[in-house]
Design a protein that fits this description.
Layout: H1 7-34, H2 45-99, H3 106-127, E1 130-131, E2 134-135, E3 164-168, E4 171-174, H4 179-183, H5 192-205, H6 208-261, H7 265-290, H8 294-298
Antiparallel strand pairs: 1-2, 3-4
Helix pairs in contact: 1-7, 2-3, 2-6, 3-5, 5-6
């Protein structure tokens, strides 16, 4: 039995096709205006899961890169402080050798003693250095001054826990050394502040034998300081490598996200023009199909 095609059926089919064409054009216009081919989960249910995963990984990677920048700041700052300390220790050694030669009058020894006292104060200032308001030589107690000028620096006990920053998933790197590690612990013979205190006493008493004995202790502490500074340098190199890897990973994730979410403008422009032509042609053909009415046939 043949199906009778009525004027109403043709009109409904035409309007349905025009509506579908307009819907496609609206979707393309939305993609071109937002720059994304996925604007809601229904646009691509599979693609949206990848897009959300990439966004999460990019966000985590950005935070890791911020941690790398913070770690570099800590390590570079501590390396600078260590270099300053090495310069001071070199000057202290020179003064000690000068005072231990046994030919200096007491006035000269007193002058050396005064300079060593100033150098000690400078070392205390270095021990109390802060970065962004945090004391760098007091372990995790970054809000507490490690060396109180009102007390004996040689007896100070700094926090023994390192500050660690997570630079990648499961990878934590310590970014500091503690004051007791660097300057010496209470009771150690090569504690920097204890050595300087003893030097001051020996210079006041003209004890050249004591000054000579201090040189060995001083050399032992300097060797430990240099070892710690080398360790800081090694950590800094590792942080640089991690930072480079994070940058590469960030670029890869961004490219993957772009391929998943971003719209292809050249393709959209072509398809939009094609759909526009189809829509205009449909309107033209539809006008010819729908325009005849019963009155037209009765004429």
């Amino acid at each position: 039995m043949a199906l009778r095609v009525t004027q109403g059926m043709m009109s409904m089919q035409l309007l349905r096709n025009l509506g579908a064409s307009m819907k496609r054009m609206d979707k393309m216009q939305e993609q071109m205006s937002t720059g994304r081919k996925i604007n809601r989960p229904s646009d691509d249910p599979v693609g949206i899961t990848y897009a959300l995963r990439y966004r999460s990984e990019i966000s985590a990677n950005d935070q890791y890169q911020k941690n790398v920048d913070t770690a570099k700041s800590w390590l570079d700052y501590q390396d600078t402080l260590m270099t300053e300390t090495m310069n001071i220790m070199q000057r202290v050694r020179e003064l000690t050798v000068k005072g231990a030669n046994g030919t200096n009058p007491q006035a000269a020894l007193d002058a050396i003693r005064q300079e060593i006292g100033q150098l000690k104060n400078q070392l205390v200032d270095i021990g109390n250095s802060r970065l962004n308001g945090k004391y760098v030589f007091n372990g995790q107690k970054t809000d507490v001054k490690p060396y109180d000028p009102a007390s004996t620096a040689a007896d100070a006990v700094t926090d023994g826990y390192n500050v660690e920053l997570e630079l990648s998933a499961g990878i934590k790197v310590p970014v500091n050394v503690t004051g007791n590690q660097f300057f010496g612990r209470k009771g150690e013979a090569d504690n920097v502040f204890a050595i300087l205190d003893q030097l001051s006493s020996d210079l006041a008493a003209g004890n050249t034998a004591g000054l000579n004995a201090a040189l060995g202790k001083m050399d032992t502490r300097v060797d430990k300081m240099l070892s710690l500074q080398a360790e800081i340098g090694a950590r800094s190199n590792r942080v640089d490598l991690i930072g480079n890897r994070l940058q590469d990973l960030g670029l890869n994730l961004t490219n993957l996200q772009s391929k998943t979410e971003d719209a292809d403008y050249s393709r959209l422009i072509i398809q939009s023009k094609v759909n526009e032509n189809i829509y205009e042609a449909s309107l033209s053909v539809g006008a010819k199909i729908i325009s005849p009415s019963l009155v037209d046939f009765l004429k």
